[in-house]
Batch of 4 targets.
Target 1
Amino acid sequence: MNIQKEPFMDSSYLHQYARSADDSTLFDGAALTDKQRELIAKVDQYGVAWAERAFKHDREASFPIDNYKDLHEMGFLGLCVPERLGGLGADYRTYMLVASRIAYYCGSTANTFNMHNANSLWTADMVDEMELTDEQRASHERNRALHYGNMLQGKIYSQPFSEGSGAAAGKHPFGTIAKRQDGGWLINGKKIFASLSGSADYYGVLCTEDVPEPTYANTMFIAVPADAPGVSIVGDWDPLGMRGTVSRSLLFKDVFVPDTAEMMPQGVYIRAAARYPHMFMTLTPCYIGLAQAAYDFSVAYLRGEVEGVNVKRRMYPTKQVGIAQMYIKLQQAWALFHRVTSEFKAHPSRGERMRAYACQHTIMEYCAEIASAAVRVCGGQAMLKTFPLERMFRDSRCGALMLPWTSEICIDRLGHGLLYNEGERD
Ligand SMILES: Cc1cc2nc3c(=O)[nH]c(=O)nc-3n(C[C@H](O)[C@H](O)[C@H](O)COP(=O)(O)OP(=O)(O)OC[C@H]3O[C@@H](n4cnc5c(N)ncnc54)[C@H](O)[C@@H]3O)c2cc1C
């Protein structure tokens, strides 16, 4: 046997690189709390009705307003409002877990619920932990008490930031402008894909303060009342999937809002975004819940347990292989989801940030792959509109398109971020 003799390759680089192995090895998973289990159980009480309504909302491309009445009754419009301000006080991971179960029953409800909760999750503890002036803290306390009060009374908020430019991807300032006026702001601009258009009571708009040579740092987060003069909804809504989100375009023409419309003090949004990057993956629960639903439908279908199907198909080896492959992807996605949602914190490490991109990419792509496999594995009858699977198949394709972390952008950032340390360039 020809065994290589010294000198072997100098492997001392492993001293340094073992740190990246640490990053993958040394992880303590967070156990679910009683509160998280209770909130998920509450969703289960209502969810079947949402799954049944989903057929109609998908067919009509109409907003599932009755589900929001339920969410209000459940206290869930205040899910991420701190307990001291009357809400259920869900933190980031709790929100993510609960939202995944909502999506299990209705994708459009979970997709839009994300937009509603962005207005509370972003503005609660995360802002409290940031450095603010006394004046900023006082005005924020006053403003959010007002908005959280609205939510607790059943008002629905949305979060339109997309404009069809590079702004939503963080490339340049938002084109929607907030101009300072006595006692408030004058808003002008256009938002596309504004989920909940026509159903939200407030549009939580990301816009740019009207200053000379504005940058992304001049971003403002302002809640515009849907009935304010100058707000209009334009364009139609007849998309492939997530049809119940009703994401039409919004126009703002000289819309005056008072100072209390500020959801965050000036300049804080951009600091918060840099400090808490995991906030940009709050749509992952929607798509992992959907993937789980597509998988579970397939198991029930192959076992002959779905109403309207009386032939079992589980005995065919190809079906067994198909379901096993779907399950493997689903478990990979859940494993990343649990890990990454447990790692939420201010200023995560580079490894944690990279893992968040990997998580977003995995869930958005696997959701579409699992739903697509489900159609193939179940077969022709399963894709009739009497079953939810064909809707899940269409809904599942939308996750990868969500800015600012589309699947492509995640790959871009991973590719660069894994090979370059901070400040390095070639
Ligand atoms: C069902 C649904 C609901 C939605 N709801 C909302 C909502 O409530 N609020 C909201 O603000 N938006 C919402 N969106 C919009 C979504 O977040 C995106 O803004 C939208 O899908 C982008 O479409 P676009 O064609 O303008 O993308 P473009 O900006 O043209 O991008 C097209 C693709 O190019 C790639 N790309 C874009 N910029 C970059 C870059 N800088 N670097 C590398 N690659 C890039 C991305 O992969 C992207 O998918 C929703 C979208 C859908 C489908």
Target 2
Amino acid sequence: MANKAKKIIIRPARKSDGKNISSFLRSFPKEQVLQNYFPDYKTSFVAVDLKGRVIGHCGLDISKTGLAELRSLAVAKEYRRLGIASKLVTKCVKLARRKKMWEVFAVTGAEKFLKTQGFRNLPKHMVFLFKDIN
Ligand SMILES: CC(C)(COP(=O)(O)OP(=O)(O)OC[C@H]1O[C@@H](n2cnc3c(N)ncnc32)[C@H](O)[C@@H]1OP(=O)(O)O)[C@@H](O)C(=O)NCCC(=O)NCCS
């Protein structure tokens, strides 16, 4: 298993990765990875195998308010539980710090995993609300 992880490179996404990233992310159900739009490649990271195939992705949406949203986090099934998502999230959090963001938040189905990465619920007196406007 450790060998498998060694063959994976985690790096900033490039413009030329665009098509590979979207076809990778579109292979996940919409309930897991929102499909409306994907984060800018300039604030995203990919995990690629030795053949250059995208097997993992995580990006940030940077906002002027100082809030960054962790977006489009996904790792291919056969590469899970190797620490790849943890590395991708760490890269995004470091990038958010460099961009002088105050906080990083995520709307996620992977609550347990993100809590291992230091994410936590809103304080008890606050809730997250949304309205579907379409
Ligand atoms: C959530 C997801 C991104 C996690 O990817 P991953 O690369 O498997 O994550 P990691 O390997 O970093 O960590 C996953 C678990 O493996 C464990 N792990 C990490 N390295 C390990 C290793 N070498 N050996 C055994 N376990 C390991 C971690 O501790 C973690 O444990 P936990 O599930 O108890 O929290 C992946 O399951 C996924 O793509 N899910 C579908 C898409 C999705 O739901 N995305 C979230 C949208 S925000």
Target 3
Amino acid sequence: MERSRKFRTGACVGTTKLRCDRRDCAPRIAERMHTPAGFIPGHALPSILPAEARIFAFREAKLAVAGTDAAPAVPTLAEATAAGLSGPHFMLGTLDGVPCVAQTLADDAPEPPGLRFAGLRALFFLLPEPLLATAARAFQIVEFDRTHRHCGRCGAATRDKPDERAKQCSACGHVVFPRVSPAMMALVTRGREILLARAHRFPPGMFSALAGFVEPGETIEDCIVREVREEVGIEVGRLAYFASQSWSFPHSLMIAFTAEYAGGEIRCDDAEIAEARWFRADAMPPLPPSVSIARRLIDETAARLRA
Ligand SMILES: [Zn+2]
């Protein structure tokens, strides 16, 4: 689950089956992977969880879901208990007043009776958005629990801190917090043209915005200038913040900007980029699925340039 040194350009979720062509979808894209309305975060587990509490139980990166393939559901505590789920609980908060709890299952846990395991990407457009966003939050907490059981400084066992979302070493006292990795996304414009690139692993023909992880010591703006220069040899200026998106694969925070061309000729970093080109705003190539902030960034910028 560790990220590679480079961000996956464009935050593509990788398969075309996630494309949504429904006309009513666009207005909802802005809400994806944000804190749902009606969600109140909290980390203190109540002494007694009600039977209707939602249990977001993960075996590695897969969520235990109830319901049908076409209409998956997040199990209640009653359903999770009946299915025999066991493992530590982590309070996430309440969604419309109902407690939501993350649960870490053993990596070799069998499929519980009445439930099945599904990856988060497979649940896009099937699970209601507030539950999907809460599931993504739960995954990051479970992933933190799975990967920080021992102290990175001395190797002794850690335990959960009671007063905050953190783990503390039982021997040396070292405290660690859930990791969030900031990453920038930049859409470069030149007049009415947009610079898009193809990473080697993209589906054939698909282009997206440039993206990369922030390095220690950098601002987001520094990162944008460096990544665009490294990946395509272009200089940029006039950066403008667009939006951000939590992206739980496994713990990124995508921060998207537009940037204006300021000089240079396209020269691709062959290790990262298969091809980069200027496209007219009214002639876009195949783009990433609409669940990603990349798509929203490109669609809204292209619409602005066409206006
Ligand atoms: Zn330690």
Target 4
Amino acid sequence: MTSTITHIVLFKYRPDITWHDFEAHFASFTGLQRKCLHPRTGKPYMLSMRMGKNRSWEPFSKGMTHGFVLEFASQDDLDYYLTEDPVHLAFSQAAGPLIEDSLVVDIRDGILFGPKAERPIGADETKGSCHCGRVVWAVKLENKEHVLCHCDTCKKLGGGPYSCNQIVPKEDLKILEGELNTYTYKGASGKDVRCFYCGNCTSHVYHHQDAMPDKVIVRTLLLDGGSDMTAGGEIFPEGRLKWVRDLADSLQDGLVNGEKR
Ligand SMILES: [Zn+2]
Ligand SMILES: [Zn+2]
């Protein structure tokens, strides 16, 4: 039998919160146990919830003023609560401005060794991985399309006729596992561009340009389902290789794996 997961949350609230804000916040927090419904059963799935103000006289609270102890039947249920449950997500969004600092620990009673739980890929995210598998990431894409770049740098770095990308806000890319090496070069703008790649297998994960500091350029062909994504646009079209223009047509009569079609 697998034991339940206890989700322990400590909050330090902002000092300028009004009583009205506090009351509304605690009322909606308390309501989560009843309102958060399991996607399959449609029934409440939070097994228990305890909350209260810190009353410890010891000097170890690190400024945390309130504690919340929530119990879930499984990691899957907790993952759903954290990443997808619309009721909890709406609550979190409303609570965000009230909270100055927080501390979160999840435990399984009696389990004292072993790895952390794997961060789930959110419903609005796509998972990516490098060739060797050491680096894993998640990215939010507004639409699942490649933007082809025909610039000379992409040809040199990738060894192909073009690269497949999408530009996303920096915070929409999360590196979940592994470490990235960096290669810095001067972009067309004259400013630095950093290429982040797996130090083991050299797969390019993303680029960051000083010319657009809040965005990153992710390599979309390394994403799960990347081969099924369509090409939705292109940049530096003047660099497009002649035979790329009509690739499907020009290959009609060509050889496949050295043999006639
Ligand atoms: Zn790798
Ligand atoms: Zn390029």
